[in-house]
Every structure is written in C-alpha cells, then in structure tokens.
Specification:
alpha/beta
Length: 242
Amino acid sequence: MPARRRLWRLPAPRGPLEVLGAGLVALAAAVTLVRLLHVVLSRWWPVLVLALLAAGAWLLWRRETAVARNQQSQRLRARLRFSTADLDAMGDRAFELALRDLLVRDGWRADHVGRNGDQAADVIAEHPRFGRLVVQAKHTRVGAKVGSQVMYQVKGTAGPVHGADAAVVVTNGGFTRDAVAWGRRHDIGWMDRARLDAWADGGEPLHQLLGLTGPGRRRLPGLLAALPRLRSSAHEGAPGVR
C-alpha cells in the first residue's frame, strides 16, 4: 500500500538554540503586527469606523428587506385562490403546480415531482406537524370520474416508494363509488370537485379537509366524515368506469 503524502510543514526546532531562534522570530512578527495595527488605527481610524458603520447599515437593510419580502410573500400566499373554472381551464402540469402552490399557502413545503415515471406522485409535501404527504393529481374533463385503479397505484407507492405518512388523490371531476369505498377502507384520501372548490377557492386548509392528525397515525380518514355537508357530492356527476 503506498504511503500517504504529507503536506509540507516547517520542521520542528532541534535543540535550545533553534527553539530560542524560533521564539525570537515569533516575537518579532508579533511586534511588527502590533506596530502595523497601531499605524493603521492612528491614521485611518475614521475610515475604519465609517466602514464598520456602513457594513452594519447594509446588513440591517438586508435583514429588513428579507423580512419585508417574506411578509409580503406570506400575504400573497394567504390570498391565493383558484376557482373551479380556473382549474378546469388548466393543463395537467399547470393543475399540478396549482396544487403545489395551494399546499405552500397552507404552510407545507411542497415540491412538484410529476413527470414520466413519477410512481403515482405529482406533488410531495412536508409539514412539521403532519409529516409527508403524497398528492396524485387527476385533471379531467368536468363530469368524468376517477376509478379504483388510481387508488391502487397510490396505495402501492405512497409509503413504500415515497415514504409518505398520508396520501390523497385530487381531481376537478369526481370519483366512482368503488374508488371512494376503497380509499376509505385503505386510508387513501380523495378530493373531488366540491372539496377541491372548498380548498382552492374557499380557502379551507387541506389538512382540515382531510382530518390529518400527524405522522404517527399514518392514515387519512374518509373525507365524507370530515365534510358532512358535502356527503352527497361523492356520488354526483356523470357515470364513469368503476
């Protein structure tokens, strides 16, 4: 095995004379540095003081600007709204990005991951209280319904592949009865057109609509129980594939 190359360094003093010489050199260097500092401070101290004040003012300005920008961003996010007509007019990617932005509005750190081979995850979000959430977006024509097959796919990848604590399928259409029943039985949340409107346009946070309680539970309660006033909406819409 080849020996390691050592970085160059000064040889250690050998004997009392070399130790004394090294000490004198160090002392001379210290004295020179002190004299240099004395000259600089005695002649240029006003410039140094002004430079320090300017640097302090610049840092304070940067901090105040960042705080103001963050507050403005939070106010803009809090007012973010999408009507169902807006969502219907979007393409698939724009719909996924809108869901990401709504999650950010609700206090999640969300990333758009939807692409070919995304393994049933279009948005992955993190929350300090609710853990990791996988969102599968299904943008469709109004009246179309999402079937059970989508629920199977999300259930199969949300935890094992993406390490999610919860998962939800979001559509601007509806769900078949079998999809709703399977999702409730296997803890895959679902958000149909009515619930999407309550979230995107009504401003209700997603975790409230889904009844999320935290990562330790690792399940999503049925949305019909969370929103009794929308109980009938799960079975509305045009017939679809079950």
